[in-house]
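re: ur question from yesterday

yeah so i grabbed the chain u mentioned. its 79 aa long if i counted rite. heres the sequnce exactly as i have it in my notes:
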Amino acid sequence: MTDNPDPLTEVLDSSPTAVVVSTLASGTILYVNDVMASFLGVPRNEALKHSTASYFIDPNDRIRVRDARCSTAATTGGR
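ran it thru and got these structure tokens back, copy pasting raw so excuse formatting
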């Protein structure tokens, strides 16, 4: 750990919006802020032990969301 906090992490940590960052392929959770952890009902460190599929009632919904996001990104240039 460094003495200089990452500015992006500082922004995400202070966001009033629930934020999760995960890998597209596997859904491995790389980051959640406190708002998202509260929404999921788990501590941040616990959320990081799971994939996004763990938080869908139907894990296949994650695939549908991922595919829809990829389709949107392809047609909008990633926006």
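noticed a couple things. The CA atoms of residues 3 and 10 lie 13 Å apart. also The two ends are 32 Å apart (CA to CA).
anyway ttyl
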